[in-house]
Amino acid sequence: MAYSVVSKKSGTNYYLHTREVTLRGGRQQRIYYFAKKEGDGALDALPDGYVVSENPRTGLPLLKKG
Fold first, then answer.
1. How crowded is residue 59: how many other Cβ atoms within 10 Å of its Cβ?
2. Three-state SS annotation for the chain
3. pTM (2 d.p.)
């Protein structure tokens, strides 16, 4: 089961995902993002050292180091 968060503003369920991307200089970097549907790259738990917060204006979840 993928890690999910419910938006306090809209009540929408969001699922945490990760993906490896290649930056312009060729360096690989892991990104984390939330999506409305569970898909490839969905995570079962929060990564160590991260916390979830919510944008008060849009209600979208954000992943922050903390």
1. 14
2. CCCEEECCCCCCEEEEEEEEEECCCCCEEEEEEEECCCCCCECCCCCCCEEEEECCCCCCEEEEEC
3. 0.89
